[in-house]
Amino acid sequence: MTGASWMHWGAVLAAGGAGAGLAGALGMFDGVRAFAVGTRQRLAASFPWIVWTAGANSIALCFGITAGAAATLAMMLAGPVAVLPACLAGCCLGHRLLATREKHLRERFAGQLATNSARLAESVRSSLSLPQAIASVAGDAPAPSATVFQAIASAYGLGQSLPQALRQTQARTQSREFAILCEALVLCLERGGPLPIVLERIAASLRELERLRAKIRSGTAGALLAIRVMTATPIVVLGFLWTVDPRSIEKLFQTWGGIGLLSASGLLIGLAMRWSRRIIEQYV
């Protein structure tokens, strides 16, 4: 073969390799994008109240801040070798913060539901229709209840039937207490009944349920405090040892073996904390 032929076939092979590489890069990009979209959807399903009240971007922002802060701190204290474990620890911290915020919003909504049911009963007794009563409660209720009742009023205003708007919002809230209220309202709408009396009885039942939950929370507060103390003890001991012998402790952050030991310890502590909290919180 002549030199021109070799150059021709070399150019063909180079073009084929470039095309294959580009196709592989595009396929990888599509895979990464699909993974990111799936992760975003799973996180949105895990934290519906945060998405509802603050938007889906707040979840990504929380993870970005915690992971970035942890990576920056690890880079300053231990160097590049600790950046990846620090990012993972920052993501775990962000997940915990989001879970705490989600639980707080759920508890606030459950605590406000009895008062909102009583307001609905008063509005219906004052000759308002149920959609008008829901809109009135949406204007007067505090957050996050105002968001929920405003969603029902908006869905009804956009043309949905009231039972459909109630069931759609109830599925989005994932609240057992709100499910009781919605099912009672739907039954009264479909089959008739004394709606103010039903709402007053539901409000009384929700108040009693909240009283029992408060009693259980006070009974389990000591156990939750013990869990927090046991979780913080290894961190406090590590900080104390660092003040006594900083060189020995710094090796934990500057070597692969030390980082692996810290990562395994953090994982075991996190699992133990989550397990113990799940055991206690199933009674609350």
Relevant terms:
elongated, disordered N terminus, mainly alpha, 284 residues
Written description of the protein model:
This protein is an all-alpha fold. Helices cover 89% and strands 0% of the residues. It contains eleven helices and no strands. The chain has helices spanning 3-46, 48-54, 57-77, 83-125, 130-140, 145-157, 162-173, 176-191, 195-244, 246-254, 256-281. Helix 4 packs across helix 5 (130-140) and helix 8 (176-191) packs antiparallel against helix 9. The chain is elongated and about 75 Å long. It starts with a helix and ends with a helix. Mean pLDDT is 78; it is low at 3-29.
Order of helices and strands: HHHHHHHHHHH
Arithmetic mean pLDDT: 78
Distance between the termini: 82 Å
Rg over CA atoms: 28 Å
How can the largest sheet be summarized? none
Name the overall outline: elongated
Number of strands: 0
Structural classification: mainly alpha
DSSP summary: helix tally? 11
Helix content: over 70%
Segments where pLDDT lies below 50 for 5+ residues? 3-29
Strand content bin? under 5%
Give the arrangement of secondary structure elements:
Elements: H1 3-46, H2 48-54, H3 57-77, H4 83-125, H5 130-140, H6 145-157, H7 162-173, H8 176-191, H9 195-244, H10 246-254, H11 256-281
Helix pairs in contact: 3-4, 4-5, 4-9, 5-6, 6-7, 7-8, 8-9, 9-10, 9-11, 10-11
Brief summary:
With 284 residues, the protein is mainly α. It has helices at residues 3-46, 48-54, 57-77, 83-125, 130-140, 145-157, 162-173, 176-191, 195-244, 246-254, 256-281.
